[in-house]
Design brief:
3-stranded antiparallel sheet, alpha+beta, single chain, 211 residues, 2 domains
């Protein structure tokens, strides 16, 4: 029909942005088990030796796991713990509670994002964790990790724009940001360095052989 003809026509058009070439997306889809059929795109899954074909629309209802195409380390694991409360400004505690551990995957090779080895630890917005995009980052240095989480920097900006982040959280972030400077000055000298060194160790603990 006309719709399918238009779909096939559009599917043949190559993209010229970043790394989004047609072969890349085709190979990536196949590696994830996606199959293009006359009835739509399906996911092939092998269970006890049998191949089960499921409509792609059912994927959103499945619980995420470590073999998810985006990939989460310790699914939902926070880097900031309750024991950190009071040792850092409320703004940082709240901002970090909106983030969780993740791992670098092939689908993260988008646009201008620098390549990392698969499995490299990173951080993602827990509200839009199903999607590869601006809510995920993979810092190579402790300094980058810290700078990304300053008020109005990358992570804060993402949370305020994130469609999946609840309005209540955004309001609390705005409120906490207003007292960030005063709270920072009232904390023990060197708190920021100590906090981010601890955070960095938590993020890379598996690589360091702690787990």
């Amino acid at each position: 029909d006309e719709v399918r003809e238009e779909y096939n026509k559009l599917k043949s058009i190559r993209s010229h942005s970043g790394n989004a070439s047609m072969p890349y997306w085709i190979d990536s889809a196949k590696s994830l088990g996606l199959v293009d059929t006359p009835s739509g795109i399906f996911l092939n899954k092998t269970v006890d030796g049998a191949i089960i074909r499921k409509p792609l629309t059912l994927l959103d209802d499945e619980k995420r796991s470590t073999d998810d195409p985006i990939g989460t380390v310790d699914d939902g694991a926070h880097l900031v713990l309750e024991e950190d409360k009071g040792t850092i400004p409320d703004f940082l505690f709240l901002l970090w509670r909106q983030q969780q551990k993740c791992r670098y995957k092939d689908v993260d090779r988008l646009g201008k994002r620098k390549f990392r080895d698969n499995g490299f630890p990173g951080v993602e917005c827990k509200h839009c964790a199903r999607h590869a995009g601006a809510g995920r980052y993979f810092p190579l240095t402790l300094t980058t990790l810290a700078n990304n989480n300053n008020p109005f920097n990358c992570t804060h900006s993402h949370m305020m724009k994130c469609a999946s982040c609840p309005k209540e959280v955004k309001d609390e972030l705005n409120k906490a940001q207003a007292s960030f400077a005063a709270q920072s000055a009232s904390l023990r000298k060197g708190w920021r360095k100590k906090f981010y060194e601890t955070l960095w160790d938590r993020l890379h603990e598996e690589q360091q052989g702690v787990l």
